[in-house]
């Protein structure tokens, strides 16, 4: 009963904040906007076993609307700080003025570590040479951080449907001698990119590309059709109450890909990370759910649902333990 009571309180609090946010005249950064979204995130961060699929239709609708508002607010926040950063001679040297920059540093480190673990099974030190980021936005921090600190020789192709977002983003790297030569920006709907997708070793799909799961699955199917066989797809998802903020991607949504790992951070990094490999043979094939393919052997409990590992603060360390135990068995 305690858990049900906590979930009821959670839903009630989230709905209360949603109604306040929905009445705002604008979602551009302001004291009211910042306060309400900070309150919302604070409520949704703690671990929760809430199952979004069991919520009543009116709450499902509220959640969908809230995800849309969160996406709009995030876009406004990024555009505001991208514009501000562009006033510096070299914007890349001042990225820390963005209030969530440290979160991006942590998330990018996490994604790089996961990518390194799974990128190549034949060449342990291999790194991707061409990376695409779909839904890069006006402040493409993931691409910038990965290019600056982790994939220092790789080229990054950033795709966004919004010309103004790409215009702001490209100004940030224009004055940087290194990044200006390795980062490119394309204004187009990724659905219109076909053979060009075969050029990328890794494709990142932003959390807010496809505000609802039907739109996101449409994009995933397109990527499954046109990405190079064996290429890596990295997606951002959400878990627990954080699913009030971002769409959830389940493994069954990734037809044409082999899901390699799913990580659920439980610190201030909001997004879960899903890494999958494009099927090298048949896009339409359904390989099912094989724990051995996910590298965790036979120790995964029968209650495991698509290997939803609860990674407490150091998910990669936990995965190391799981894999080592599997090898011992």
UniProtKB/TrEMBL annotation:
InterPro entries: Nicotian_synth (IPR004298), SAM-dependent_MTases_sf (IPR029063). It catalyses: 3 S-adenosyl-L-methionine = nicotianamine + 3 S-methyl-5'-thioadenosine + 3 H(+). Gene3D superfamilies: Vaccinia Virus protein VP39. It is an enzyme of class 2 (transferase). GO terms for molecular function: nicotianamine synthase activity. Its EC number is 2.5.1.43. Keywords: S-adenosyl-L-methionine, Transferase. Pfam families: NAS. One of its GO terms (biological process) is nicotianamine biosynthetic process. Synthesizes nicotianamine, a polyamine which serves as a sensor for the physiological iron status within the plant, and/or might be involved in the transport of iron. Belongs to the nicotianamine synthase (NAS)-like family. This is Nicotianamine synthase.
